[in-house]
Specification:
Number of strands: 39
Structural class: mainly beta
Number of helices: 3
Largest sheet: 20 strands, parallel
Oligomer: single chain
Distance between the termini: 32 Å
Helix content: under 10%
Mean pLDDT: 81
Amino acid sequence: MRRTNRMRFSALLLAAVLLCTACGGGEGKAATMRLTHTTGAVDVLNEKGQTVSLQENLGLFSGYQVGTQSGSFAWIDLDQVKLAKMDEDSEVEISKEGKQLEIQLQSGGLFFDVTEPLADDETMEIRTSTMVVGIRGTCGWVEIGPDYVRAGLLEGEIECRAVENDAAGSVMIQAGMMATLRDGVPEFQVEMLSADDIPDFIWGESDEILEALLAEAEAAGSQGDGQQDAAGGKTGGDEEVYFDPEEGLELPEIPDDGIERTVVEANDSDELSALFSGGNLSNTEIHLNDGTYDIGYFSLYGYENLSIIGTGETRLVVDSGEEEILMATECDNLLVYGLVMGHDIPKEVACSAGVFIISRSENVRLAGCDIYGCGLVGISGYGGNLTVQNTVIRDCSSCGVEWMGGGNVRFENCAFSGNGGEALFNIRNSGAAEPVTTEFTLENCIFQSNNCFEKCYFSEEDDSITWNESGSLESGNRWQ
């Protein structure tokens, strides 16, 4: 297993919760949470910063701080229904006002197991410098890493909210999922849990929940992976196989809008970079060859009638998980054709960027493309109009398509395969300067082996979002 230095805070969090729930009504007893057991070196400070001597069932109160050193752990308990365990090298501080409990995680991590939901008038939050996790009756953990904060859930449902990061907003995760917020990244990364994601110190606390959850995930993965049939194709057990990622989709004809453009050719990465940085590309048609163009991140701004034409074997890649592939802002009548776009990095390297992003651009068209992970999101859009034809979006960790700010989006003869996250489509109209509407249309698309809980998530303003779907084929998706 991995990460022995990550879980640090919620023993106190739970302790505080326990503090809140232990109030004795008319008896007037102070709420308390108890430090029931420790191993190694554990320090406790009171609200004045004074050291508190450890003793059996030590009471913890508002303003108290608890810290564990290397190789040390701490357990907190209340009524045997709210339990917590602090990882080594962890620090937390409890703040309680009435029945409102907040645990400030300063470093490390915490496992929590709240088997009785909080009352309607109680709140319990785990807060870090970048994320707040709301707890009501669940089992999981929160941790601070070197450049991220993560919440993982084994049972129930929690909300994770970004602090001072309006772009990231909030996400709901359910059992078997984890939400990660990385430094400098304006969105949550939501993934399914695997055995390697479970920190060492959690094992032994709720093993029945853990083992059942991992067994379910393994069974779902086996069903999604399928087996090789005699012809070399994949069979999904009882599921139909509509799309083979190794074969891809048929390349369509190059769209022709009748506009005259200057045709240029870029034979390698250097020539393409020179084109992108060499001046106005409006009314230009760029032709690319077979092979890999390792371009780094490119941003297109303010061009009209630009076409980027690949062969279907043209690979537009970056070797960093922190960079998008292509961003187009205010680029009207843009065509991207026959490109394979993604991140060329090892699977074990975390990815914190999407693949293709458009913003405030009218009449953008993707045709015959292959958009793949480890990108967080395959296509992100912020207002405008987009048509996607004969294109594959696969293996993206957070969602396949994210759209906000209004516009018309259309997918025709596309395939979505192997994507993760809470929802395959995440559509929001919130945050726009004025009321907007969004229209999504899907025709004859394939949805296969996506590990998403929902096919589509609408924002609270979903009455301004129209969803039209026809001719879909679905097989082996988690939401089915």
